[in-house]
Amino acid sequence: MQDLTLVMAQLDPLVGDIPGNAARAIEAVREARIEHGADIVVFPELFLSGYPPEDLLLRPSMEARLREARGKMAEKVARDVLVIIGYPGVREGKCYNMAGVLYNGQWEAEYAKQALPNYQVFDEQRYFTPGTQPLVYEHKGAKLGLLICEDLWEGSPVKAAQAAGAEVLISLNASPYHQDKPTERLRLLEQRAQDVQRPILYVNTIGGQDELVFDGGSCCVDEQGQLKVLAPYWQAGLMPVQLLQTSAERWEPQAGEIEPEVMPEESLYCALVTGLRDYVNKSGFKGVVLGLSGGIDSALSLAIAVDALGPQRVQAVMMPYHYTADISKQDAAEQATLLGVHYDVMPIEPMVEAFMTTLADSFAGTERDTTEENLQSRCRGVLLMAISNKKGLMVLTTGNKSEMAVGYATLYGDMVGGYNAIKDVYKTWVYRLARWRNTQSSAIPERVIERPPSAELAPDQQDSDSLPDYDVLDAILVRYIEGDMSAEAIIAAGYDEDDVYKVVKLVDRCEYKRRQAPVGVRVTPRGFGRDRRYPIVNGGQPGE
Asked: Is 45 part of the annotated catalytic residue set?
């Protein structure tokens, strides 16, 4: 009987940086050997290319670059350590999502992912050919069955690996986060382990990539599905798992470190911080600038930005007009001081009045309407983009999912920017996150959380003047967007008919706006963009 030390390399690759990712892998193997005495080191899915590489896979140079990186790894990786790592590979003219096995300077085996997801944010059938065979690799007496991400969810590749003689299942993953996803994964692992009576090691990636964010949570369950090891969420690192051979064909993972469960608000907040931090840093921006209105959305966005980047890399700008309340000015200034960011006040009255003077002849004989309100927002957008261009700061947009759903945002105004940390966060969750953040340290003035929400584009304006209360609005939106329920089904669930039809019409009508919105962190199962692709020109009836 013997034991093996397997190290799960929960790391953050950079998409497209193949040499850099290979260097990260080489260094991680070295550290795992020195710090943990690793016999085996496992990296996430498509680690060498980063995930998702998208149309980078179509470039002819991709395969040559990967072969060069793998050659470098074969030369540099510590001997007597088995390395299992993910990468794309072209074999006989077809591209596969692969897991390669490297040992003592030789690439000894490859496994091709069999189940290719093509739903939600996944588009793997566009690029990859499915594998057809299991791979069981024997190392120091342990028969290791390799899997890649969706293989676990689909199920049949798990049973194929068992039938091929696997004693331990190892799954390489790039599983993006959304709310409740960590719990779903653990339930899945429990079920799959029980199905085949084999322990499963699950290695996940970490970090942000465009709108996707990866939470880590690499783990190990025994053959009964009992959790034995769970790496920290939202932290890169190397997590060891001890495998003890208890009989000729049975390996038992030993109890190790298990990350404590966290509140849903903390998990979601960490996702937003991670997504923003990695987008800004990986894109090379010096920092961010945002409009700080004194309202809840920009207040939460500011707190996220400071936690992601530090106050020295964040600039906030208050841009008041006639309808901006004094308490909004006071609260914005208070929060800027509280968080220690650079803060400017730039009144927009001169800009708005200049536009109105120029437009006076064209607008003659018309009534004042949302056109004038939108001018205020667009003047603010011009100022923010000018600061962005001059200082190299990315404009952080601050609209939430509820507003984006119903079109309560102004094109070329408050929608300008490069990224939106709360784009996929419903308004009710914005309040929950703000309250949670204040339990960690004082970050958002309490009055900002307690005040009725308003865009302050007209006298005494409140959001509830033209929308249902956010508790009701979000309940309708979740059913329509996340659940794909028809208007009739939502009404049958107990919601007011007028409210439902108003909301679903707004959602359908505003698809054109969302197509022009900045990307943002995806944290729900049905984010706008990759997840929900509706035609802009659509002859169907709203809510069908």
From this structure: yes
Cis previous bond, 518, omega within 30:
no
In the sheet that 106-112 helps form, which strands lie side by side, from edge to edge?
106-112, 94-103, 82-91, 40-42, 3-10, 237-247, 250-253
- Helix, strand, or coil (residue 23): helix
How many C-beta atoms surround the C-beta of residue 103 within 10 A?
Answer: 19
Residue 243's DSSP bridge partners are: 4, 253
Q: CA-CA distance, 44 to 37, in Å (whole number)?
A: 20
* CA separation for the pair 298, 454 (Å, rounded): 12
**Stated length of the chain:** 544
The residue from 27, 31, 94, 149 that is catalytic is 149
| Residue in 45, 223, 259, 456 annotated catalytic | 45
pTM of the model: 0.94
pLDDT tens track for 34-81: 999 999 999 999 999 999 999 999 999 999 999 999 999 999 998 899
113 is catalytic: yes
How would DSSP label each residue in 141-185? TEEEEEEETHHHHH-HHHHHHHHTT-SEEEEEE--B--TTHHHHH
3-state secondary structure 446-507: HHHHHCCCCCCCCCCCCHHHCCCCHHHHHHHHHHHHHCCCCHHHHHHCCCCHHHHHHHHHHH
Please indicate whether residue 149 is annotated as part of the active site: yes
Q: Is 92 helix (H, G, I), strand (E, B) or coil?
A: coil
On whether the CB atoms of residues 393 and 499 are closer than 8 A, the answer is no
